[in-house]
Design goal:
Layout: H1 3-33, H2 42-49, H3 56-61, E1 66-71, H4 78-81, H5 86-96, E2 100-106, H6 112-115, H7 124-138, E3 146-150, H8 156-164, E4 172-175, H9 186-197, H10 203-213, H11 225-235, H12 251-266, H13 277-280, H14 283-296, H15 302-312, H16 319-328, H17 343-349, H18 351-361, E5 382-387, E6 390-395, E7 418-423, E8 426-431, E9 441-449, H19 452-460, E10 468-472, H20 477-480, H21 489-497, E11 502-506, E12 519-524, E13 541-545, E14 550-553, H22 557-562, H23 581-586, H24 596-600
Parallel strand pairs: 1-2, 1-3, 3-4, 9-10, 10-11, 11-12
Antiparallel strand pairs: 5-6, 7-8, 8-12, 9-13, 13-14
Helix pairs in contact: 1-16, 5-12, 7-8, 8-15, 9-10, 9-21, 11-14, 14-15
């Protein structure tokens, strides 16, 4: 293993020793004494079996595993619309393996692409906790010996895992649906967005471009949070190998899902290959998730999600771990917004089997993790295919396109493109894998806002046509639920295109597709908790320095200490935001995962 990967892993193991031991004791206890079907009363079982007729006799006989399906299906979210027919097919495939399957419950699945820039986005991050709680409810009946988790997008996969890990004595497999086929290229879509921001095209042209990009069922084709989720499930060994980026509606997609159901039936506690979820998600798997994120230029949202998933399994990872890993892990993939290719081109060039082979070969991934597929992670360096109507896997070859995927020995960059910034403003994250090197350091006067829509209006009035650090505060988890500030991407990109030195500093989030503009995000402590970001005033010189890892207001120390933080705006209401007050008031800081649920559970 690379010595820095080993050192960070050891650091996480040592820091997590008490909490991980408590977690493993929990799942051991649950495996041995938790409510199980043979122990349920007859009336309880009758209720559980009443909704099924074809499988009732098999359930009564307790002849095989009963698989709980936890689904995030809805047909408003393109990535999840594909799940419509999955449960009925999975029931057939379960019978083939001597098992049964039932839909245990549904979880909400909101689309950040729909809510970006509008009030509903303030529910987005806490939908992750809601999904975790819904997953726990689905699995609380004690009638399942394993579970299939159907989810793909931004908060859904983290939420499913956070809830499912509290039932970590059960084997579980994540089942993706795949990306939509390529439509209008992402780079062309982004260009139309910037033209619209400048008033050069109208709403009709913009809408046509957006529909041309987002045109059918499946995951969006850029490498944002949803597709980063799928990458992570592969490097953690929680998918069937190679399942992440196979398009919906194909024979291969169907056979991979069928294989996942069959595999679940084999890895239960009654068999000889028991692989409970809580044992699969160990410290090494969490490090693999972070390494995969860095090597592929994935979404900044996972600096929130990985710590939260880890905590649910008794594991503690912090931003220093990410920072150290980033300096050791090379970037070997270029997928939009870090390049021009989309995930379909990435898959065609070798996809996740290539990435995993290269990273294992370079000693950057822990191969010795207990994957759901059996064996270790080396099986995931094989690509799936259908030959003579039979699913099989074969070793992946060389990169099919070295503008998209490169060997670990000849990477695009020697590091992973994530940095932690620290200074008198606080701690923040910055993703520089798509930022030109001459923009890693920005020093400019601040323009301070408390709403991203006010930034857009100031841009339209020409007030930002200058070197500027745009500061958007009171966007943290306790203030308003930490919405993504994706609406700022086009105007900030336009300002940069005009030749200005531009950066963003915020205690909120940026989109998983954030790209060419340097953005210091997740600033902690947040403004609502008297974080120093609340002391910044219009005109203060701000230095965002990804080279040295600093985030500074260039203000005298005495003056800075004497400043009174800006008053917090009144809590917003409408669009159900008032119902999430308990989540906001109890949320942890960003570095711990920004979760109210985990904090409330004492995790």
């Amino acid at each position: 293993m690379n010595p820095e990967i080993s050192a960070v892993t050891d650091r996480i193991i040592e820091r997590s020793r008490p909490s991980r031991a408590a977690y493993l004791a929990l799942i051991d206890r649950e495996r041995d004494v938790a409510i199980r079907r043979p122990n349920l009363g007859c009336a309880n079982l009758a209720h559980a079996y009443a909704g099924t007729e074809e499988d009732r006799d098999a359930m009564k006989a307790d002849a095989g595993m009963n698989i709980g399906i936890v689904t995030a299906y809805n047909d408003m979210l393109s990535a999840h619309a594909v799940y419509y027919r999955y449960p009925e097919l999975m029931k057939v495939w379960a019978r083939e393996a001597g098992a049964t399957a039932q839909v245990a419950g549904g979880v909400p699945a909101m689309c950040d692409g729909v809510t970006q820039g509008y009030p509903g986005m303030e529910l987005s991050l806490f939908s992750r906790d809601t999904i975790a709680l819904s997953t726990a409810i689905a699995l609380s009946h004690g009638t399942f010996e394993g579970a299939a988790l159907l989810g793909i997008c931004d908060k859904i996969v983290p939420g499913l895992l956070m809830g499912a890990l509290r039932f970590g004595h059960l084997p579980m497999i994540l089942i993706p649906g795949g990306p939509m086929p390529t439509g209008l290229p992402n780079k062309a879509k982004a260009a139309v967005r910037e033209k619209f921001a400048e008033g050069l095209v109208g709403r009709e042209e913009l809408l046509d471009a957006e529909i041309g990009a987002y045109h059918s069922k499946g995951t969006c084709t850029f490498y944002g949070t949803a597709n980063t989720n799928q990458m992570m499930m592969e490097v953690m060994g929680l998918h069937m190998p190679g399942a992440a980026f196979v398009n919906p509606g194909t024979k291969l997609r169907q056979e991979l899902t069928r294989a996942a159901v069959h595999r679940l039936a084999q890895i239960g506690a009654r068999g000889d290959d028991y692989r409970p979820l809580g044992a699969c998600v160990d410290e090494k798997a969490i490090v693999n998730a972070a390494v995969g994120l860095l090597a592929t230029g994935g979404s900044t949202n996972h600096l929130l999600h990985v710590p939260a998933i880890a905590r649910a399994a008794g594991i503690v990872i912090d931003w220093e771990d990410f920072d150290r890993l980033s300096r050791a892990v090379p970037t070997i993939a270029r997928v939009y917004p870090n390049g021009s290719a989309d995930v379909n081109a990435f898959e065609a060039a070798g996809g996740m089997p290539y990435v995993i082979r290269e990273l294992i070969g370079a000693g950057l991934l822990h191969a010795d993790i207990p994957t759901v597929a059996g064996g270790d992670l080396s099986a995931y360096a094989h690509a799936p295919s259908i030959e003579n109507d039979t699913l099989g896997w074969s070793p992946v070859g060389d990169s099919g396109d070295e503008t998209i995927l490169r060997p670990a020995a000849a990477p695009f960059s020697p590091d992973g493109g994530m940095r932690i910034l620290a200074g008198n403003i606080g701690r923040a994250c910055i993703k520089v894998s798509a930022v030109e090197r001459d923009r890693w350091v920005i020093e400019a006067p601040a323009a301070v806002f408390e709403d991203q829509l006010d930034v857009i209006e100031a841009f339209k009035r020409g007030e930002l046509d200058r070197d500027v650090v745009v500061v958007v505060r009171f966007q943290g988890p306790r203030a308003n639920g930490m919405p993504e500030l994706h609406k700022l991407t086009p105007p900030l990109g336009v300002l940069q295109n005009r030749g200005f030195r531009v950066a963003l500093v915020t205690d909120g989030r940026m989109s998983g597709a954030s790209g060419k503009v340097p953005c210091a995000i997740h600033c902690s402590p947040e403004a609502l908790l008297d974080g120093a970001i609340g002391r910044i005033r219009d005109g203060d010189m701000i230095r965002v320095d990804a080279e040295t890892g600093t985030l500074e207001a260039l203000v005298g120390a005495a003056e800075w200490a004497a400043r009174i933080p800006a008053p917090a705006p009144a809590p917003a209401s409408g669009m159900g935001r008032e119902l999430f007050g308990m989540f906001r008031s109890g949320a942890d800081e960003a570095e711990k995962g920004a979760s109210a649920m985990l904090a409330g559970a004492g995790l």
